[in-house]
Amino acid sequence: MAKNGNGLTAHWRSLVGKFRWPLGGGLFLILIVTALAWLWTPDASSYPSLWATRFDLLPLGRSELGALPVTVRGVLLSSDPPEISVSDFAEAVRRAKFEPRLPLSDGLGHALPSPKLSVVAPVRKNVTIHAAQIEAALMRIQGSDLLVPWAWDGVILEVNTSAGILADYGRMRLGQRLPLEYRAPDDFPVDQFLEVLFRICGITAAEAAALGKRFHEHPAEFCFSLPGIPSIREKYRSPRGRAWFYAICLMTVWKD
After folding, report:
1. What is the distance between the alpha carbons of residues 222 and 78, in angstroms, rounded to a whole number?
2. What is the pTM of this model?
3. 5: left (phi over 0), alpha (psi -120 to 50) or beta
């Protein structure tokens, strides 16, 4: 038995020695192919950032985004993450990773009470464009004047919403967060893509083109018409010279 065992071992050694270089070369080739595939795989986190420096109001409601393909709806539509109550201002800043500007008075010289604070988590979305789905949506609205380049197919866009801080003063609620961030390949025309989405939602050709042109000049975050709810939008510069951030009063609720 020992001799047979030694014979088998010697036989396998001779086979390995005989095919050592072909096997080694094959494994090396597999490693090269795998590395190249990894290097060429698009990573949205490596794309340049477009920061929304203003707001633009869309002449439609959230429900009208149902005309968009589900795969790209997240570019314009965001979910509402749950609120997490916090004990004080310092904890809100620690969780949200920015320091908000909260009003101290009501504008008439009357001091405001300390608000109840809560935080919402950040939301990061990756959206993959499928050119055939966009073309089918355009055909449904007879948007034959718009072309969807096949170079768009498979492009990944990233839309990032930072954590937010909500302040409840009893008679009103204020929300603040950092600017919306878009990430796209350097040569991808985000403004033209948004113009196509606006048309699918039912916005006129002239309005969609104007919205896309304004976005090209200054990237924007898009808000929807909210009938019956007052909306105030102001822009502040951080005292530390950081990025622009916004105080958004889209959910101001008066209780009397």
Report:
1. 11
2. 0.69
3. alpha
Are 62 and 78 within one domain? Answer: yes
Measured over the CA atoms of residue 140, residue 145, residue 146 and residue 148, the dihedral's sign is positive
> Rounded to 10 degrees, what is the CA torsion of 118, 124, 129, 133?
-30
Q: Which residues contact 74 (CB under 8 A, 6 or more apart)?
A: 125, 127, 159
**One domain for residues 137 and 93:** yes
**Are residues 6 and 96 both part of a single domain?**
no
Residues 6+ apart with CB under 8 A from 166: 83, 117, 118, 119, 120, 173, 174, 175
Range of the domain at 12: 2-40
**One digit per residue, pLDDT tens: the chain, 256 residues?**
555 555 555 554 554 455 454 544 444 444 433 333 334 444 555 788 899 988 888 888 888 888 999 999 999 988 778 899 999 999 999 999 999 888 888 778 888 889 999 999 999 999 999 999 999 999 998 877 888 999 999 999 999 999 999 999 887 888 898 999 999 999 999 999 999 999 999 999 999 999 999 999 999 998 876 554 444 444 433 333 333 333 343 333 333 3
Close Cβ partners of 165 (under 8 Å, ≥ 6 residues apart): 92, 93, 96, 98, 100, 117, 118, 119, 175, 176, 177
Residue 216 lies in a domain: yes
Backbone angles phi, psi at 41, to 5 degrees: -70, 125
Task: Give the separation between CA 29 and CA 220, rounded to whole angstroms.
Answer: 47
| CB-based burial label for 112 (10 Å; 0-12, 13-18, 19+) | middle
Q: In terms of Cα–Cα distance, which of 91, 87, 117 is closest to 102?
A: 117
How many structural domains does the chain have?
2
